[in-house]
Sequence to fold (287 residues):
Amino acid sequence: MRSMLFVPGDRPERFEKAEASGADAVILDLEDAVAAAQRPKAREAITAHLQRSSRPVPLWVRINPIDSPDALIDLAAVVPARPDGLLLPKARDGRDVLRFDHWLEALEAAHGLIAGGIKVIPMITETAGAMLQLTSFVPTPPRVVGMTWGAEDLATELGAAASRDETGHYEMPYQMASAGCLFTAAAAGVSAIDTVDTEIKDIAAVEQRACSSRRSGYVAKLAIHPSQIPALHAAFTPSAAEVAHAEAVLAAFSKSPSAGALRVDGKLVDRPHRLQAERVLAAARRR
Fold:
């Protein structure tokens, strides 16, 4: 995946539009985008859509935090309809993820679903406490396929006036949160997925920041508006030049398999460059 598009769970008229937006996955949201009073209707709408959709793209659901009274109600409503995956917001530590995994195991068994079939992406930096517990997220249950992060809830907890500066770049605490997500996902062996960009008009800026995300190690990004999708895909899809260079690196090592370092395009490359070339070509094949 290069993009995962949020759509409010209480706006069912937007569900099919989101599926047709070009996003690689859609997240039907039961948390921040839905007022508490609207959550019962949102659960009904999401469940109905999961049951009838032909699933042109994977359909995920963001439930409410595991320590909230809504979490189990959310799961009981949506799991029987077999979402492709679930986002767990505000995970406080690895114990929350394990507890969530156990809940899902029980619900999958109760409804005759394949154990571990519903995938999970925890949001791991949304509280100050979670920032101090990042190592507890490793190792992680097999159903966890990625990790992502959030800045706005963390900014609220820190009492910050804003998470970004006037140029749109994150302030230092949120740069740390982003780096923490990258390190933790890499240590766990899962995909790192960058948080949302709230800009929906300056699409060039969205693409520029997404390119920076990819350079840092992210493989995809959350989105809040269909207008962002083409920019995210452009940023996370290897260019023709990148593919050509990756092919040249692998070809050079294929000719000299015992070499520790080689010269390609006037530069020395070694094992890390070879691994990166393999990742580039794998990403290109997935598009």
Summary: The beta strands are 3-8, 25-29, 59-62, 85-88, 119-122, 146-148, 191-194, 220-223, 262-264, 267-269.
